[in-house]
């Protein structure tokens, strides 16, 4: 059995994984984001409470592990910043540890038991609080040691001129200006809508207005689709993904994902006669599923 953890800034979720299709979610506790000692103690309690002794521990984290130094960048959990997290956790918990970014775990979950089943190359797309992703090739993460592969939402590539509309270069939380994350995430869509219409509306309201045919929301979504479609088509041309599985809050709209799929397929070199971008299918928390797949492959294969 692998004990899995999905580590977020608010909560630590856990599960026992006996196989990729037998994952049993367990407790959810608050994340001690400021105190590493309390953080480790929360993990020790989970290990002690497991139904059987785990063969290893697998973590999905809302951060990035540098593949060369092993140091963690986890902005919303300060007590983990800069730590050689795998080595530290193995020393403190006495069990082998494997870690991956939460977007990578999402992609691995979808490739294994979700929408990407049967496809050799799967790109997991996050469209929610942020714009991100992960890449799985042949059932394995393309960057198993950690790193930034799949982070298509960052980099100053967002179009500034769309039709007759000139857009500002919105600053991004990564420190750059003009990232897709800054204008096409849920918060980015809201900024885009406010710029275009002067109306303050959340992303759920914007998408709902578009679905209902509201003119202002329809204009915002049309520009949002244009901003995303070109970069996603370029990603497809580079990766040759058989499927792109979309998760995050904006993927809750089946119509929005279908519209994005049509816009992207019109721009790719390969002409698909089926959907390329589909909604994610994992029923259980994808972070836990992805961590489970990672741990099972590392410790029980």
Observed structural traits:
alpha/beta; Nucleotidyltransferase, domain 5; 37% helix; 9 helices; 301 residues; 2 domains
CATH class division of the largest domain: Alpha Beta
Total E-strand runs: 14
Could you tell me the mean pLDDT?
94
Q: What is the share of helical residues?
A: 25-40%
What is the count of DSSP helices, taking H or I runs of 4+ residues?
9
Q: Rg from C-alpha positions?
A: 20 Å
SS class: alpha/beta
Please describe the biggest sheet, giving its number of strands, its sense, and whether it closes into a barrel: 5 strands, mixed
CATH topology descriptor of the largest domain: Nucleotidyltransferase, domain 5
- Per the principal axes of the C-alpha atoms, what is the gross shape? globular
**N- to C-terminal separation?**
12 Å
| H-E string | EEEHEEEHEHEEEEEHHHHEHEH
CATH H-level homologous superfamily name of the largest domain? ATPase, nucleotide binding domain
Strand order of the largest sheet: 3-2-1-4-7
Model description:
A hairpin with a 2-residue loop joins strand 11 (161-162) and strand 12 (165-166). The chain is 37% helix and 22% strand. It is α/β, with parallel strands linked by helices. It contains nine helices and 14 strands. The chain has two domains: 2-101 and 284-299, ATPase, nucleotide binding domain (Nucleotidyltransferase, domain 5), CATH 3.30.420; 115-279, Nucleotidyltransferase, domain 5, CATH 3.30.420. The model has no long low-confidence stretch (mean pLDDT 94). Helix 3 crosses helix 9 (286-299) and helix 5 crosses helix 7 (215-239). It has helices at residues 36-48, 85-93, 102-113, 180-184, 186-197, 203-211, 215-239, 254-265, 286-299; strands at 2-7, 11-19, 22-30, 56-61, 64-65, 72-73, 97-101, 121-127, 131-137, 140-141, 161-162, 165-166, 243-247, 277-279. Strands 3-2-1-4-7 form a five-stranded mixed β-sheet, sandwiched between helices. Strands 10-9-8-13-14 form a five-stranded mixed β-sheet.
């Amino acid at each position: 059995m692998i004990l899995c953890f999905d580590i977020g800034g608010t909560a630590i979720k856990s599960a026992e994984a006996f196989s990729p299709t037998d994952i049993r979610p367990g407790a959810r506790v608050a994340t001690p984001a400021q105190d590493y000692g309390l953080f480790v103690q929360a993990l020790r309690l989970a290990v002690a409470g497991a139904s059987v002794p785990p063969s290893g521990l697998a973590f999905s984290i809302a951060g990035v592990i540098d593949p060369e130094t092993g140091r963690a960048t986890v902005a919303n959990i300060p007590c983990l910043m800069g730590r050689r997290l795998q080595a530290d956790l193995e020393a403190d918990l006495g069990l082998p540890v494997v870690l991956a970014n939460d977007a990578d775990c999402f992609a691995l979950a979808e490739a294994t038991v979700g929408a990407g089943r049967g496809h050799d190359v799967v790109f997991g797309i996050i469209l929610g609080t942020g714009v991100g992703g992960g890449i799985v090739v042949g059932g394995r993460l393309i960057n198993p040691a950690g790193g930034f592969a799949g982070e298509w939402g960052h980099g100053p590539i967002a179009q500034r001129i769309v039709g007759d509309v000139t857009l500002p270069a919105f600053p991004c939380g990564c420190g750059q200006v003009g990232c897709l994350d800054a204008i096409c995430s849920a918060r980015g869509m809201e900024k885009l809508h406010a710029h275009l219409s002067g109306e303050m509306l959340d992303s759920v309201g914007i998408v709902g207005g578009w679905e209902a045919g509201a003119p202002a929301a329809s204009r915002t979504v049309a520009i949002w689709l244009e901003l995303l479609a070109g970069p996603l088509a370029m990603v497809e041309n580079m990766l040759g993904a058989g499927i792109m599985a979309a998760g995050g809050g904006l993927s809750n709209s089946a119509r929005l994902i279908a519209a994005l799929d049509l816009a992207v397929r019109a721009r790719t070199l390969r002409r698909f006669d089926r959907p390329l971008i589909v909604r994610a299918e994992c029923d259980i928390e994808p972070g836990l599923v992805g961590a489970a797949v990672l741990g099972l492959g590392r410790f029980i294969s």
